[in-house]
Design goal:
about 400 residues, mainly beta, Immunoglobulin-like, Neuraminidase, 2 domains, five-stranded antiparallel beta sheet, about 0% helix, about 55% strand, globular
Length: about 400
């Protein structure tokens, strides 16, 4: 006779006991293993895209954000170093020796490749996009550093936005049609996307820029610092120091996450206003890190372990009662496959339930609207094995997670 399912609540984890938004992490999972030196990556709400490989054997690939089969979008790339995403297209930079660099694009679903720019001299890792153009750092014919742009569809020629730098500038970002860059004296500046008056807004030694909300963030590769300031200029805040070759960064809620590009680089995080630095991963050795707003993705390329794309869900806060009594329960039904989810919400929001295995793999997901107050919903979890599962209930305001043991 088949045994009735038994669901035992082990512990309930409530991370926002007083409706304060905080971050909790699930387990890191590998969504793309056995890769050939992945370097830089980007993501949308469905896929992670990356460039990998070296001279004449580079490739552009993608995988679902939940893992699975890897799709190759392009091969034969020559020293791919940078990747960007905009609308329906993925863009990448090929170093292709000092004077033959390329920028190309392809639709996210694959197809023909369009060359956006050619003959580039030391084109760097980063690109920025507005409605019409792709912007990037390059060297002019006289060897001077410059910020250039070209039409995103490949229909026009290269234009120098600002140039004449003794050194090659690296960091670039665009926001509200203002391009952010820095000069030989490490002055951080803005210029209208089509040219015009240059404005100095601060000073630093940036390797890359990242705009989040009202702030401009950057890494200082040579000095090991993570910093920010208002994107209109103002006081510079040092978020973290002592990092080893910090490369790219992203911001999720109230934390900055960055990746180190040294031989055994780490993925780290710190509060956006400064504070304790926490190590998320001990192996990276790339510049590839990205977020879709709820999860963190990064490339690992340590030779001894093979290349891979890693994912970490950053669980962000649910509007639950301040008395810490969430009334968040999951009760098994008599059929052995159905479960009654109940909770009491204090805010009107879209709520999402995700059930994770003990390995951090999502096995069930459902979103639903709910008015303020009590709510119940029956869910089905068929064909799952006995083991530990995490039921995560999430909204824009917060979250609650229960760790449970399912015995069949």
């Amino acid at each position: 006779m088949k045994k009735k399912s038994l669901l035992i609540i082990v512990v309930a984890l409530i991370c926002n006991l007083h409706l304060v938004i905080s971050n909790c992490h699930s387990q890191t999972i590998t969504i793309a293993p056995n890769l050939n030196s992945p370097w830089s990556l980007v993501t949308d709400n469905s896929y992670v895209y990356w460039v990998e490989g070296g001279y004449n054997y580079g490739a552009l690939k993608k995988v679902s954000i939940n893992g699975g089969a890897i799709t190759t979008l392009a091969t034969g790339l020559v020293d791919p170093v940078g990747i960007g995403i905009d609308g329906d297209y993925v863009y990448w930079i090929e170093w292709n020796t000092d004077f033959n660099g390329l920028i190309k694009r392809i639709q996210k679903t694959g197809g023909s490749i369009t060359t956006i720019a050619s003959g580039l001299h030391c084109a760097q890792n980063f690109m920025a996009f507005n409605n019409n153009n792709v912007y990037f750092a390059n060297k002019q014919a006289d060897g001077k550093g410059a910020i250039m742009y070209a039409p995103k569809d490949g229909s026009g020629s290269l234009t120098t936005l600002v140039g004449g730098f003794s050194n090659l500038t690296l960091a670039i970002a665009i926001d509200n049609n203002l391009v952010y860059f820095y000069d030989d004296n490490n002055n951080i500046k803005t210029i209208p996307a089509n040219g015009g008056t240059i404005t100095t807004i601060g000073n630093g030694n940036p390797y890359m820029f990242y705009i989040h909300g009202s702030d401009l963030y950057w890494t200082e590769f040579s000095y090991g610092n993570i910093k920010k300031m208002p994107k209109t200029g103002g006081t510079v805040t040092t978020i973290a120091t002592g990092s080893d070759m910090p490369a790219n960064l992203v911001v999720i809620n109230n934390n900055v996450y960055w990746i180190e590009a040294d031989e055994y680089g780490k993925v780290k995080k710190a509060p956006v206003n400064g504070g304790t630095t926490t190590v998320i991963s001990n192996e990276s050795n790339t510049i590839g890190i990205a977020t879709d707003g709820t999860s963190l993705y990064w490339a690992e390329s340590v030779i001894e372990h093979g290349g891979k794309i890693q994912k970490l869900d950053i669980i962000t806060g649910i509007g639950l009662p301040k008395n810490n009594n969430t009334d968040f329960t999951v009760i098994p039904k008599s059929d052995g496959n159905s479960y009654l989810l109940s909770f009491n919400a204090t805010t009107v929001s879209t709520y999402k339930l995700t059930v994770y295995s003990s390995l951090g793999t999502p096995i069930y997901s459902m979103a639903f609207e709910n008015k303020e107050g009590s709510f119940s919903k029956e869910i089905k979890l068929e064909n799952i094995e006995s083991g530990i599962y995490f039921f995560n209930l999430q909204s824009a305001e917060g979250f609650a997670t229960k760790k449970m043991l399912l015995v069949k």
